[in-house]
């Protein structure tokens, strides 16, 4: 898998800038909470009320941050996918390989929309329910932030689908196939 090194913020859109910086902020906050928790435990610091809340909060940030990282991976087209079938098909029958890629992309978008709908419902149903470990954090906030990142993934996957559909090779192959079928029918 090739790593996309074009993650420079100056070339990105404002939307890319927001996604990347929010995911980075969540990761840094999680890291700082974890370092704080380790420091308090190792040095047995007498903090009034304790720092028990940092562990579950870091866990929630890890969960939400995972979806943020997945949105960044979708932006770069680096999410987990099995390319062996489409690669072999593109070598033997390029049109079929392109169709398989498009079908996989459509299924990814449909799955993410269904996941986002479930996340939205969970967010609305649990908006006022406090988390057991950290009462100041509502379950709906966690589900809502996950749903926002899923929405970002849908956006990026739709962009990826559009680029697959407008690829000149795919369009030319499809037109050549139709022209041959029309000539054979005459």
What is the terminal-to-terminal distance?
A: 46 Å
Task: Please report which band the strand proportion falls in: under 5%, 5-15%, 15-25%, 25-35%, 35-45% or over 45%.
Answer: under 5%
**What low-confidence regions span 5 or more consecutive residues with pLDDT below 50?**
none
Backbone structural class:
mainly alpha
Helix proportion of residues, in percent? over 70%
Task: State the domain count.
Answer: 1
Order of helices and strands: HHHHHH
Largest sheet: none
Instruction: Give the strand tally.
Output: 0
The gyration radius over C-alpha positions equals 23 Å
Shape: elongated
Count of helical stretches: 6
Overall average pLDDT: 83
Membrane topology: Multi-pass membrane protein
Organism: Natrinema versiforme JCM 10478
Pfam family, one: DctQ
Protein name: Tripartite ATP-independent periplasmic transporters DctQ component domain-containing protein
Protein described:
The model has no long low-confidence stretch (mean pLDDT 83). It contains six helices and no strands. The protein starts with 13 loop residues before the first helix and ends with a helix. The chain has helices at residues 14-42, 54-76, 84-92, 94-125, 139-165, 168-185. It has one domain (14-185). It has 186 residues and is mostly helical. This is Tripartite ATP-independent periplasmic transporters DctQ component domain-containing protein. It is found in: Cell inner membrane. Keywords: Cell inner membrane, Cell membrane, Membrane, Transmembrane, Transmembrane helix, Transport.
């Amino acid at each position: 898998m090739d790593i996309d090194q074009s993650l420079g913020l100056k070339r990105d859109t404002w939307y890319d800038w927001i996604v990347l910086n929010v995911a980075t902020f969540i990761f840094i906050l999680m890291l700082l909470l974890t370092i704080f928790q380790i420091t308090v435990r190792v040095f047995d610091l007498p903090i009034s009320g304790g720092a028990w809340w940092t562990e579950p909060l870091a866990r929630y940030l890890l969960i939400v941050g995972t979806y943020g990282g997945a949105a960044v991976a979708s932006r770069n087209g680096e999410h987990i996918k099995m390319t062996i079938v489409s690669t072999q098909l593109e070598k033997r029958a390029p049109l079929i390989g392109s169709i398989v890629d498009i079908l996989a992309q459509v299924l990814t978008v449909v799955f993410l929309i269904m996941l986002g709908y479930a996340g939205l419902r969970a967010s609305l149903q649990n908006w006022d329910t406090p988390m057991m470990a950290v009462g100041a954090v509502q379950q709906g906030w966690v589900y809502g932030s996950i749903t926002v990142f899923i929405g970002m993934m849908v956006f990026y996957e739709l962009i990826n689908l559009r680029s697959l559909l407008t690829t000149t090779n795919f369009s030319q192959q499809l037109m050549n196939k139709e022209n041959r079928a029309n000539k054979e029918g005459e």
